[in-house]
Design goal:
2 copies of one chain form a homodimer. The first copy, chain A, has 300 residues and is α/β, with parallel strands linked by helices. Chain A is built from 12 helices and 8 strands. Chain A has helices spanning 3-11, 17-24, 33-45, 62-81, 101-117, 132-144, 161-168, 193-209, 221-233, 251-259, 275-284, 286-299, and strands at 49-54, 86-90, 122-124, 150-155, 174-178, 213-217, 241-246, 264-270. In chain A, helix 1 runs antiparallel to helix 11 (275-284), helix 2 crosses helix 11 (275-284) and helix 8 runs parallel beside helix 9. The radius of gyration of chain A is 18 Å and the shape is globular.
């Protein structure tokens, strides 16, 4: 983490929530499902696919998990009804992973089956390293139960990921590869940006050569370059992979990637639980943090 | 572009022309053909080959293009008469590319045929991205007309270059590979120096493996290292490639490369239109710009 990011992370609790919200509005679709649907339709018109995230992470009661799953079902229904090009991304902690693993598995299995009935797809997001093993295990169980419209995320900053890739390749998995953004101890995650990038490029090469479908999730143009290099050298069909970026981040690079003929999927979060998501985005992106600082100064 | 370079670019119009000229004198042979011939002979004695550039870019009348082509013919004649080891580098805009593409093709074709009669070679320089497609097309037409003593330049900073390499390899082309120095929009060119270097190394590897003859044009020792690594791993004969550097730039690295047993060709500009060339060199090279600043301070 750069010094600037560390300063921002330290200062963030002092930033008024209303201000975080204002700055966040560029990368969250809005509070309601209608906001998400509108943004997905706009993205589709621009040539991009979408994946919808109902905001909300750790929960305290199973009823909250069921409500979140129902919200996802509503999204899947709208996407099908409006013939949109989109799927959904879910966090297992929002579906009860920390409350009861079996309940969580049951809840996500039901959602993946509902998505299958609508010919859609469920991406299981990856969270901090306390969830990694359970999330991968949940994915394996879903695949063992015959479901294949489901994918997982691997994080290049985790030291374990190279081994996870090897253990998953037999499944011909659908993997979103990202750098990883949670704060992790050095024993768990690479701390050096250059190592994380080398890890990302190495894992991507292994995934592509191992027959995985890869969601190449990055806003780092150096990694976009590596990905394009790997794809070109293998003459890979564009249906074998997709690029993925977050709503509101690096719009110019998104357009450049699409103009090069690659498929692009944009991550569209919506909902009332926007704070944790926003703070994570603010911490990772000095440019966005700059907006916060300027906005705070402007208020004086 | 670094902050320093940006400052220099901003300050340059304020630098007196006489001063630009004085600083430029180290990387321009002089005003006349006798200056160019003298410098080529010196380079040959030091073990380097040369390529001569008659300064002058965009023109307004066809007569100027014909005068430039005649100047090149005079250079080719002198090189043959004095048994020098040198060829010529031409800019198509100086031969009328922006006035009339067919006229330009005819003019350069005549020059390439004259060079062939003297067993010499014509390198077609690459200019800004508004010229790229037309320049490549002109090269293809010359090759289709049976001329093979002609080569082209590809720029590693352009996003299109990987595709251009693939489309040209069938011709067993003679390619000078450089980073590229014109100011281009992000949609067109990589802006990050690390990406440009990765692009350069990747393109060089593909060109060498694809059977192209490559002029490895760089003053970046990181790229010299990558080039030597690629050449060594392939046990390439030294006749399959050459290094290329500009007159007056990184003389020490030039000597190091030659001492390692590689062939080296130095780009020797001469002529009265030295200003545009000099400003481009000043903008790209903070070390040279430093000389300007020191020279200005010394005048006070």
């Amino acid at each position: 983490m750069s010094l600037f990011n560390r300063l921002v992370a330290t200062a963030l609790p002092a930033v008024p929530k209303g201000l975080v919200r204002k700055v966040s509005s560029r990368y969250i679709a809005g509070d309601g499902i209608e906001d998400a649907v509108r943004v997905v339709a706009e993205l589709n018109r621009s040539g991009a696919m979408a994946t919808v995230d109902v905001l909300g992470e750790d929960i305290e009661r199973k009823e909250e998990a069921i409500a979140t799953a129902d919200a996802y079902r509503a999204v899947l229904k709208e996407i099908e009804a409006r013939k949109l090009d989109g799927n959904v991304s879910v966090k297992l902690t929002a579906l009860g992973l920390k409350l009861d693993k079996d309940f969580c598995l049951e809840t996500v299995e039901k959602l993946v089956r509902d998505a299958a009935a609508r010919k859609s797809f469920v991406r299981i997001d990856m969270e901090d390293s306390s969830c990694t093993s359970d999330t991968i295990e949940t994915y394996r169980k879903l695949r063992a139960r015959g479901l294949d419209n489901v994918g997982i995320v691997l994080q290049a900053y985790l030291r374990r990921t190279a081994a996870d890739v090897e253990s998953l390749l037999d499944l011909s998995p659908n993997i979103r590869l990202c750098k990883g953004i949670y704060v992790e101890p050095r024993r768990v995650a690479f701390k050096d940006g250059a190592i994380v990038n080398r890890s990302y490029a190495t894992l991507l090469e292994r995934l592509l050569d191992g027959g995985a479908y890869v969601g190449i999730a990055t806003h780092d143009e150096k990694l976009v370059f590596e990905a394009e290099r790997l794809v070109r050298a293998r003459k890979l069909d564009r249906a074998r992979y997709e690029f993925q970026m977050l709503l509101g981040v690096e719009r110019e690079l998104r357009d450049i990637v699409m103009a090069s003929g690659h498929r692009m999927r944009v991550y569209v979060p919506y909902g009332k639980s926007w704070y944790a998501y926003s703070v994570r985005r603010l911490k990772e992106n000095p440019a966005i943090a700059g907006h916060v600082v300027r906005a705070m100064l402007a208020r004086k």
